[in-house]
Amino acid sequence: MSIQSTIYSLLPSLPPAARRIGELIVAEPAVVLQSTISELAKRCQTSDPSVVRFCRTLGFTGYVQLRLALATEIGREIAAEPNAPQFGEDISPADSLGDSVEKLRFTEVMAIEETLKALDLEQLNTAAERIDGSSRVLLYGVGAGAVVAEDFAYKLSRIGRIAQRFADLHGALMAAALARPGDVAVLFSHSGQTPEIMQFLRAVKQRGVKTIAVSNVRQSALAKEADHCLLTMVRETEFRAGAMASRIAQLAIVDCLFVAVAQRSYQPTVTALELTRQAIEQQLAR
Questions:
Q1: Using an 8 Å Cβ cutoff, are 215 and 190 in contact?
Q2: Which segments constitute the SIS domain (predicted)?
């Protein structure tokens, strides 16, 4: 699992001193390799013990272990793509069109790779079982998450599953009011804090519906309150290159969920895909 992406995903839940440390490392990963613990603490206007606590939050025993792990990660990234931009680097007015395209390519490819490498297969399998055994799948996202929800609804409908995607909170809440324990809700929020998503989550849980969250923030309210959570590994940027990558990472998780569900009824799935393909081809041939 990427240390840099893990730090980014934890930022919203960190206390102020730890957040300053995390923000500096995300912006300048090499600072850990170039600074002593005291130098890093001074730059972040905090203390040496605060840096140690930050390291332990990431699962390391201390600063030395973080330096070694981050040096390995940075070296691996450079070896894989020597001329690649820094992951998470934003698009600037000085970039050529080619530079902008390269930054987008690198950000989106890395987001998919890190998301799928870190994907919890046990959670994925359980989520797929929930969807496979459900009476109906309720899908809700806001903004870029709405696009992902619509894509998943389309995929599920092609294999004969009952899936509903809601365009606004009113529609989502009406569906929640009529939801039953056999239903499953899948919710998309990069931050895990989107108010509309949280309102829908709590409404369906009151109706006994099992919930599956797709989010980038492990410690978010959505990740904590949902029955199951599938995490993306993406770093956002001010120019929205990250928001584009977050959508791509969520779509990758949707593809994994779809395949996991489809494999449970392989032959009926193949038949359904063929029948729906033929239906479209016949319409186009008229």
A1: yes
A2: 127-267
